[in-house]
Amino acid sequence: MRRHIPSTRALLIFDAVARHHGVGKAAEELCLTxxxxxxxxxxxxxxxxxxxxxxxxxxxxxTEAGRRYHGQIAGDLLRLQNHTLEAMAQRTDGLxxxxxxxxxxxxxxxxxxxxxxxxxxxxxxxxLQVFPTNLYMEDMPFDVGVQYDDAVWxxxxxxxxxxxxxxxxxxxxxxxxxxxxxxxxxxxxLLQLRTRMGAWEEWxxxxxxxxxxxxxxxxxxxxxxxxxxxxxxxxxxxxxxxxYFVERELRTGELVLACPHRAPSSRGYSVFVAPSRTDDPLxxxxxxxLRAAAASPPV
Length: 299
Hints:
It contains 10 helices and 10 strands. By secondary structure, the protein is α/β, with parallel strands linked by helices. The strands form 3 sheets. It has a 6-stranded mixed β-sheet. A two-stranded antiparallel ribbon has the order 1-2. Helix 1 (8-20) packs across helix 3 (34-48).
């Protein structure tokens, strides 16, 4: 069956015309003549059978069909470029490790420790990507994954890595800091992570003698821990975060513990090894290093 796929050259030219809203600037970017760009556009329109670009008093503009088509192929061209760059980045010795991690753990715990592993394996090219939470995939595109214990990766070899404890943090000059230090959070504005709306209730249930606000789910909401911590720095309220995520901020004094209690979370983390990589020496070394790092004191 014949494939109806235009040439990459024609698509790149069309993309340039769409971005620059005209043939002239597109030709300049691509180091082509005006006539060469126009010819490729005509060939593309002929192949598709749809008018993509029209001449107006202001120059060249996309038709409605052209705008719709460009919106569809622009992302495809970017993905094709990224796939090509990924292939170009392959080492000839094959020492590449593709790691997927839940973002909060990757940013707050893994990255500060990763130079230790790279120093031991200087020939390794490590690619760190997001291991999506609550997403089922039959075949994960990673050699190793670091995710919550309940993550689903069919066939993967899973090993418990570490638990999670959460701390309440605030700005050093936060309003009500003295009251919170005594365990009185009744007037404290609680910041919320959208994906953990029950976290404060769990924390207060484990914090002896703490006096909680009447509504434990009210307050500003954020999608990311990094944004929530930025809100804490700005003194918008008190945040509940994994202790490892604010190790540096607590050490430097950017943030302080609103009260000293560290409550074990119901969440924990595991390391997952792809079924096809269980006997790989580099994967084995990385997993062993992860487990040793998890058992070590904070960096």
